[in-house]
Design brief:
Strand order of the largest sheet: 1-2
Mean pLDDT: 91
Oligomer: single chain
Distance between the termini: 25 Å
Radius of gyration: 18 Å
Helix content: over 70%
Length: 75
Amino acid sequence: MTIYRITGFLAVFFLTTAALSGIVYRLFETHVDARGVLHEPFVLIPLGWLSLFLGLVLLLACVGDWLARRQRRRD
């Protein structure tokens, strides 16, 4: 398996994780209990943003590698 395929797979994985984090965060109900404690799945917010950032960086690396390979073939 080449680094190109691994990078593409990881990009899709992280972008999917980011989307799922956002969806799951919206599905869970946020509420304040009788003692005034907020209950929300806060960990999904930074996880989603981190996954989105990593997915986009890996996607850009994958596209950059693809463009470089394409340019080398033309030369």
